[in-house]
Amino acid sequence: MPSHGDGCRFMDSMKIGVLALQGAVAEHVAVLRAIGVEPVEVRLPAHLDGVDGLIIPGGESTTMRRLIERWGLRQPIIDLAARGAPLFGTCAGMIVLAREIVGDEAPILPLLDITVERNAFGRQLDSFEAELAVPVLGGTPVHAVFIRAPIVDRVGPDVDVMARLEDGRVVAVRQRNVIATAFHPELAGETRFHRLVATMAAEHADPGEGVGRRPHPTRRGQQGR
Q: pTM for this structure?
């Protein structure tokens, strides 16, 4: 089976949803198309039908909470994760997926056993970029864009740390089929997290075959970012 960083292109029959209530939706849609996955913009529960996974983009987590509840998406998303489909949250998406939020804010989709602190690095003017080692994605560092980013204060025993800043603070995690990053890989031309999600979705569709009901992704000669 191809790795998620080897430049493989997934078949268009794979569908990954992008929660399209608010935030950086277009950027995730563009990355999915670039790796050969059909994006589905999710605004209603019916839009989750037939998707192989879901991305929760950056944006404003409080607004997302209100809209998730308003449009009846909370339980359908939880059910999607319970069936084993991969979920991937970036920035505000990490907050949406966290079991605990500093300040006693009620969780939204408590699928990750982590505690997060909102806006941990300050305001928009304090945004920054960093090169991060993410061993599961290969030896090339991930170029990460942090914009009003959260930070992980606590990691549960079943959560794998995928990346840390140089000072040791946790900025990317995975718990089984749920991944979250405090940063925006989609704003840096980074596709490897999306490739990982697509690979997980293919494996979930048919664990015995690894790439599910779809043919093996076609290989490209150029290394993918």
A: 0.86
